[in-house]
Amino acid sequence: MKIKKIEIRDYKAFYGTKEIAVDGKNLFVYGENGSGKSSLYYALKDFFQSSIEDFNYDETENIFIEEANKGNGYIKVFFNPDKDGNTTPTGKEYSVTKTTKNTYATGDTSIRDAIKLKSFLTYKHLLDIHHIKKNDEIDLFDLLVKGVLKHFKSVAITGNKELGELWTDFEKAVAKPLEGTAYNITKKKSDVDAALLAFNTAFSKLFQAGSPENILRFAQPILDKFGHNIEIELRYTSTKVNADYSTYERNHVRISIKYLGKTIPKPHVFLNEARLSAIAISIYLGMVKRHIQGIPCKILFLDDIFIGLDISNRLPLLKILDSDFAAYQVFITTYDKPWYEFIKSSYLHNNSTWKSYEFYARRSAQGFEIPIIHEIKDSSHIQHYIDKAQSYFDNGDNKAAGVYLRSAFEFILKRYCFGKVPVLFNADTSKMKTDTFWNAVKKYKTVTPACGLTPATTTAIDHLITLVLNPLSHHDVNKHEITAEIQSALTVINTLKTELN
User: Fold this and answer.
1) What integer pLDDT is reported at residue 247 of this predicted model?
2) What is the pLDDT of residues 51-73, one digit of tens each?
3) Which of 3, 95, 165, 251 could form a disulfide with 239 if both were Cys (CB 3.0 to 4.6 A apart)?
4) 284 vs 279: CA distance, rounded Å
5) Which one, of 91, 95, 90, 77, lies nearest residue 19 by Cα?
6) For residue 347, how many other CB atoms are within 10 A of its CB?
7) Closest CA relative to residue 39, chosen from 68, 72, 66, 63
């Protein structure tokens, strides 16, 4: 099953109806803060979660909708192919509204099975990475129980509850005050002991050496692919309550490390945030992989988790998703525009398995912000710029067309030069002018006949740089926006794209 389209009405940041055409591909989303990218994450998460529990739309309804429209919101997801591999022009629709649970035909458990993977991870689950070093020791307990494994659920391990729920039950039992004979210490001890036993029994199973349930069974192979050359062992010190049942202690998860086969005596010194992030994400992805994989619908949604990752972890993670989660439909969001642009121009360039969207926050006529969603329709993001230029040109906005043509021109040159053509480098990349790349390509052509740049295109570009590609990107009242020249620029940039492909 692959998601073809998502339709959301009046949910969280989404005001009115928004459609996102996924077309069965993986989705990479750039979004400003407050633009709705996390609302997309929670909309899909709630959509799947609603197949196993009641969904209260009142709690997620957009707060700015008019009174007459309240209660009419929904989340619709269209799958193509469906669970049986059938394809239709519109796809098979599943929906959840305020008054109905997730709708599916009798016997169709595909949506319910998908949520069992617990494959939705947001940056909030990784926040504890920044403060897990306690008393010169690393303690992964909070990171695991309240973060990356908070929603982990397995009948064989946690029963009918999530791991985080089991811990919350125990904390509430400890915190519950005595009320004379109505709730005395004997009753409290019984409740606390039962809750603690349930949690300790479940959590301890994840650390048993040699057990198929061991937390590192799938996590270590994924961690190896991050390239940090570290092998880890985890130990859980079972939680216990104090004598008067007013608090608890020893809830620690300690870590032992080998680096290139050598034991590291002080892990808290060796493990920086990059390595800790890789460990946390590997554990999370490993626990997703430990679930039964033979189900029709497999979604993996990573919401802004690149926040805590440096470039040395970001690229390996993308490769891990390709190698280990090829059967999943992957959704990634980020607020990091330079990273998004880099991925667009390199990793996703002409990659037919991915689509890109851009979310922006804009103030509505009523004064509140709403998401503005742009689909990047072409897998070639250079072509996207050219198409935007053509669209503005067709609608009579010559200057906007010129700006997008300039962007396409720069994109073509930089992509072609990357790893191939020597270019004079400036530590401040904002000072690396387009002319520098263009001159480097022309020089490269003279010594490398394999370059497809033709004399005719070279002459045309040199001519249009002074008429379109430079002046229309600036305010210059002495430069004319000549329609014929812009039309010529559209033609020659398309030619250049082909010649330097």
Assistant:
1) 95
2) 888 777 788 999 999 998 898 99
3) 251
4) 9
5) 77
6) 15
7) 63
Nearest C-alpha neighbor of 95 from the set 17, 13, 161, 15: 17
Would the pLDDT of 479 be above 60?
Answer: no
Domain stops at, among 358, 376, 394:
376
61 and 146 share a domain?
no
Closest CA to 488 of 356, 375, 398: 398
Identify any residues that bridge with 301 across adjacent strands, giving them in sequence order. 120, 331
For 33, what's the count of Cα atoms within 13 Å in the CB-facing half-sphere? 1
Q: Do 272 and 305 fall within a single domain?
A: no
- Token pair recorded at residue 251: 């809830």
Residue 272 is encoded by which pair of tokens? 């920086």
Total domains present in the chain: 3
Q: Is the pLDDT assigned to residue 421 strictly greater than 80?
A: yes
Within this chain, do residues 43 and 65 fall inside the same structural domain, yes or no? yes
Residue 424's domain comprises: 381-500
The 10s digit of each residue's pLDDT in 203-253 is: 999 999 888 889 999 999 999 999 999 999 999 999 999 999 999 999 999
Whether residue 265 sits in one domain with residue 150: yes
Residue at which a domain ends, from 359, 376, 393: 376
* Structural domain contains residue 390: yes
Q: Which residues contact 126 (CB under 8 A, 6 or more apart)?
A: 143, 147, 148, 277, 280, 281, 305, 307, 308
